[in-house]
């Protein structure tokens, strides 16, 4: 299968399952992951204290906060990146990628959404087969690292994995073209573990908004517990999904267009609508979308919190996706430096706990409850 994939460009630096879905996210302190082992790869010189962190005090506070409220990272390109490696061991560490278990422990990453997206032009006419190959590969990676990774399908399983010292892996987003306009394929992908689908690039979810079939896709996703992702979708489609979906909607890689006019970023009107629908804007660590510094990323997080509300903002590392990251956020170990900047700006511990962990848990719980409530409904025809 590897011969089907283009070379991956190296990135550069530039609660409980039974809680009611509308209950506020639990901020219960969770046990910390094991301390990161000594890094045998990429030995680095000691870093000077970060700007605005006298004596590293804020950085120490960030580590302590993340030990209790780890990062749920909304987008990782790791499955695709690993397909370019002839061999790898995520437990020992890999210098050629942005994400491995030592760096996730150092960065306090507790959960990852693993993208099943295909590179542009790579899946013409074969999107379903290639997505299945991506999904199969992702599952094999998880199975080969049982001491560090665990495949999860629900909010409760995320908590269980965390309590066992494992990083949870949520499969998705995948691209809507993988459905091949079939609800049956959606059900098969869900049975194999898919939990997030990006609603763009199809005739039924395009510039004209959702068609009647597109609306049936959203309803079936709600019944199955698959979350809708509208990053990059036209505003007409996103607004219709907000109105139709019985579960919160994700924007897995969207920042604030008011600060940076990138097409994937959201205007304030859409951010406000997302907040009203209790959806989640997952701000990406991409220099092109947010800017080249940690402070730029923090500006976007401030803005989304102000416009959409503190319960509608989360993080999307986008590591191993072939993008350029802001300075000091080059890999999955660097989340404490972003949290230290937010502490400097006056973010409270409850707000940061929502940002890193609680908001994602709320959305997953809501999807679980909506799926349970709809299980009596018969599946729609293919």
Indicate the topology.
Blueprint: E1 12-13, H1 57-68, E2 71-76, H2 78-82, H3 101-107, E3 109-114, H4 127-143, E4 149-151, H5 155-163, E5 167-171, E6 174-175, H6 183-191, E7 196-198, E8 205-206, E9 209-210, H7 212-224, E10 227-229, H8 235-244, E11 250-251, H9 268-276, E12 280-284, H10 287-290, H11 294-308, E13 313-316, E14 324-325, H12 335-344, H13 349-373
Helix pairs in contact: 1-12, 6-7, 11-12
Number of domains: 1
| CATH fold type | TIM Barrel
CATH architecture: Alpha-Beta Barrel
Low-confidence stretches: 1-12, 15-55
The fraction of residues in strands falls at 5-15%
The overall average pLDDT, rounded, is 87
**Count of discrete alpha- or pi-helical segments spanning 4 or more residues:** 13
Work out the number of β strands.
14
Major sheet characteristics: 4 strands, parallel
CATH-defined superfamily: Metal-dependent hydrolases
Taking all Cα atoms into account, the compactness measure Rg is: 19 Å
Q: What structural category characterises the helix and strand content?
A: alpha/beta
Termini separation comes to 29 Å
Helix content: 25-40%
Question: What's the CATH C level?
Answer: Alpha Beta
Write the element-wise H/E pattern from the N-terminal end onward: EHEHHEHEHEEHEEEHEHEHEHHEEHH
Strand order of the largest sheet: 2-3-5-4
Shape: globular
